[in-house]
Every structure is written in C-alpha cells, then in structure tokens.
Amino acid sequence: MGLSQKCQYALRALFELARRGPGMPVKIGDIAARQDIPVRFLEVILNELKQGGFAESRRGKNGGYVLARPAREITVGDIIRFVEGPLHPVEEAALFTGRNPTPDTPGVVFVRVWEEAARALASVYDRTTLKDLVDHEHHLRTGHLPDYTI
User: Fold this and answer.
1) Fewest beta carbons within 10 Å, which of 72, 83, 106, 127?
2) 3-state class (DSSP) for residue 130
3) Closest by alpha carbon to 4, among 94, 82, 93, 110?
C-alpha cells in the first residue's frame, strides 16, 4: 500500500514551508506552483494541516502559510499518521489490529511480517524530519550538506 495522493501533497506542502525558513510566509499559489499541487486541493489540505497544528496562516499583503513548529520537530511519520492514520504496510493488516485471530484465521500467518514491516516503516518515517529533507535537498543541489558549526 502506498501513500495517498493527499498525503503526498501534504508532505510536499509542508516541505515547501520548511525550505523557506521560520517565519517566512509562503502563498498558496507559490506552494502549488513549486510542488505541482492543484490549488483547490491544496487549500483543503492546508486547512486540515492548520487544524492538525502543522501550519499557520498569516494575513496581509505579505501573508501566507508558515510551519506551526520548527522543521526539526515535525517528522514525516507525524504527517503521515495525521493524514492517513496508523501505519499499516498492507491494508488487510489493519483488520487484525485489536483482535485475537486463531491459527485458522485466513491470513493470520502474515501478521508477524506486517507488524515487522510497520515497525520498519515507522522507524524511517519517525526519524526523518522536515529539516532533514530540506538539508537533503540542499545536498542534492550543491553536492554538500550545510555546515552549521559556529
């Protein structure tokens, strides 16, 4: 099971806010253009992300959207769980959650594999922040990671 288009758009929208830096509002049209997201769909997604505490809107001539928290505090896992719900690499895996299947239950032999896959996904998603993605983009563009030493 892959991520829904809505979730991919949410990730890309928040990434775009993260790459602009703290307190630098980004207009919906700019996010849509840079991340190739339909504006009407983006409006709905950003409204939900506001309600979820991921983004804030700023009014005025220089208004737009900003991250509600620092990029280093928002993980890919946080965003995916907010948009998609619990991580299950296989939709059928969710059917076994909270149940006591017997050895005769069809598909029960795969539960251990699905649980292990969900833990592996969570590990990657939960250790990857928006800041990490911004740094990785910088590395892809320049060939080196930024040096923040003082």
Assistant:
1) 106
2) helix
3) 82
Cα 67 versus chain centre, distance: 13
**Enclosing H/E stretch for 66:** strand 64-67
The residues spanned by each domain of the chain are 5-142
Q: What angle do CA 95, 98, 104 make, to 5 degrees?
A: 60
Q: Which CATH number fits domain 5-142: 3.40.50.300, 1.25.40.10, 1.10.10.10, 3.40.640.10?
A: 1.10.10.10
- What is the largest distance, in Å, between two alpha-carbon atoms of the chain? 64
The answer to whether the CB of 36 falls within 8 A of the CB of 113 is no
**Per-residue pLDDT of the chain in tens (150 residues, 90 and over written 9):** 588 999 999 999 999 999 998 889 999 999 999 999 999 999 999 999 999 999 999 998 889 999 999 999 999 999 999 999 887 766 655 555 566 767 777 677 887 888 888 889 899 999 999 999 999 998 898 886 556 555
CA-nearest of 5, 6, 15 to 132 is: 15
Distance from C-alpha of 109 to C-alpha of 121, rounded to nearest angstrom: 20
